Amino acid sequence: MKYLFFDIECSVVSKNAAKICAFGYCLTDEQFHILEKRDILINPQGGFHLTDRKGEQGLVLPYKYEDFKKYPTFLQKAEEIYALLQDKDTLVCGHASMNDVKYLNLESKRFHLPSFAFSFADTQFLYMNTIGEFSRQFGLGAIATELGVEFTPHRAVDDAYATMKVAQALCAKEGLSLAEILKKYAISLGRIENYEVTQSDSKAFAAFRAAREKAKEERDKARAHFHIFADRAKRRRAKEGKLQNKTVCFSHALELQTERAKTLLLSALDQAARITFRAEECDIYVCLEGEGGNRLRSVQTRGARVLTPDEFKAYLGG
User: Fold this and answer.
1) For 196, which DSSP code?
2) Residues in the chain where the model's pLDDT stays below 70
3) How far is CA 184 from CA 5, 124, 173, in A?
4) Could you tell me whether strands 34-41 and 187-188 are parallel, antiparallel, or unpaired per DSSP bridges?
5) Fewer CB atoms near the end CB (10 Å): N or C, the chain?
6) CB 192 within 8 Å of CB 102
C-alpha cells in the first residue's frame, strides 16, 4: 500500500466554481519514505481572486501569478491527476480533505469530465479523533506547529508534505500505523463517486453529534418554555412605570437561565415594559456579561442600551 498526501490551491473559489491552479502531492510507502514529491502547476484560465473564509482578507499564494499562463490547463493535466488519486493500491489523504475533494468535483464538472472515484482520509479529522475534540477546526499550521513540522503555507506541494509529516507524527505518537489508527478510532474514509462527496465519520464523532443535537433540543425546549411564560405574563403588564414605552429583550443565553430570566421579566413588566423576542426591536437588551454574537452587535449598532442582569436589576431599583 502507498500513501498519496495531496493539497490543492485555487485562483478563485465560489459556491459553484473552484479554478485549480496547483495540485501538490507527496507519494510515500507505508513507512512514510518519500517515493515522489511534486507540484503540478495549472493554468486556471482566469484571474486570481483570493479571500479568506469570511470572504474578506485576500490570501497570497507563494507563486508568481503571471507564470500560470504558461502552464497546462486542468483538462490537459486531468489524466495524470485522475491516475494519482484513483490508483487502487494507494490510500489518498489530505488535510480538511472535503474542501479539496469538492474543488476536484467542481473542476471535473466544469470540463465535463467523469466523476472522480476514490476514498480519502483526513489528517485534521484524524487529529480531532486522537484528542477527542470536535467542537472546532484545527488548521494544518496549528497542528504542524504542535507536532514540530515546518513548511511554507499555501504552497501546494509543501502543504502536502506537511500533511504527510503530520500523519507520520500522529502514527509515531500513537505507536501505530496509519491503517491501525483508522481502525483504533473506528474512522470511516470519506468518498467521492458519481459527483457525490461524503465526509469521514467515526464512532466518537457520531457520539459528539448526538450529544450536540440533544443539547440543542434541550436549549430549544428551555427557550420555548420561557417564551410561553413570557406571552402569558405579558397580560399582567403594569400600565405605568419606569419602563413605560420601553421595549426589553433578553439574550438567548439569558433565556436559558430560565428562573433568573423569569424574575427579570416579571420585574420589567411591573415597570410597564413591553417585551420582545426580536433584538432589533428593543430599547434595552439584557445579556450575560462577556456575551458576543450578531444580536448584540446589531443592538449596539442601533444604539440601544445594553445591560447585564445585575445592571438591569439596579436600573429598576433592585
Assistant:
1) E
2) 51-58, 318
3) 21, 16, 14
4) unpaired
5) C
6) no
